[in-house]
Amino acid sequence: MNSNGSIKYFYVALIVVVVSLIVITLRLRSEATQFTGIADAKEIVVNVPNAVEIRDVRVSPGQIVNEGDTLAAVSTVGFNNQEIDTRIAVLAHEIEEYKTRKNAFSKLSVSERRLQRLEIEDKKAAIKAELQELESQYEINQSLLTDLKSINKELANSDNNSGTKKNPIVAKIEFLKKELKRIESSSAITMSRARDELSLDGDPLSEQIKQREVELILLQDAKKEFFITAKISGVIGSVAFKSGEKANEFDTIITLHATAPSFVRGFIHENTYSQVHVGQKVLVTSQDVKKVMVNGEVIGVGSRIVEYPIRLRKYPEMIMWGREVQVKIPDTNKLLLGERVIITPVNM
Q1: How far is CA 86 from CA 16, 74, 148, in A?
Q2: Three-state SS for 122?
Q3: pLDDT digits (tens, 9 = 90+) for 1-13
Q4: Distance between CA atoms of 86 and 38, rounded to whole angstroms?
Q5: Quick check: helix, strand or coil at residue 6?
Q6: CA-based nearest residue to 231, from 44, 60, 63
């Protein structure tokens, strides 16, 4: 009986050992293929390129904001907001005044040129009418001379001798044609000179307008920077300054991140062999009871050993070391920011 009992205890112990080995093996295999991480989102640092004084902080850590919401009101050190408003009003008035003057000058010059053009056209029309009348009279005279067949030779000789002198009508016609050409040439020169003068006289006004418009834009841009707005919709992470405090250029004033995590920071223990590589597809699972799962892709594998975050250590007081792995996940997911997750590589 004692022998049978010993054999029974032996087999029971053997079964316990085998089961324990199987459990340990499965756990080691699981640990070799799975690792833990923390769901996180890219943090946006809110700062300004110049030294400012914080006038009013309108958000607090954890607050949800929409794109375009005002986060804080600041004033540039050495600038007075009221002085900027006054200068903007002065510039706007000066620009309007210069534009009015330029418009009035342009209209006056155009009116003068139109009047000159009308006067020239009247002169040209009068000369052309007189030319037409003289040419008609000359043609009639020539026709009459041709038809006088019965005139005697003496009279004909007399006419021929008189023909050596220039016909007064022909002389008048030639004179009027030259005068018409002179007026047309003079008109073209006058109009061209008037356009040049208008352009030259208009430039100083245009330059004054341009200078003030540039300054106005700069001041308006500076005024916009007095209010820091959210570039994306998300959650306020931290607020580094209080009202009345001064921040240097590019100091972090507020941090902002998306409402849902966009990547996971995973850690593989230094004693665990893993073939995880960039481009590896993974399954990210939350550790809470909901077991939220989302597909991801490895976008970075650390090339050095780093210390584990305290939250991912099996025993917080025991320091752990391993490689960091960056996993990209879809922007729309049900994971919580800062939530602990399990990362399981797919098709290892």
Answers
A1: 88, 18, 94
A2: helix
A3: 455 666 767 677 7
A4: 52
A5: helix
A6: 44
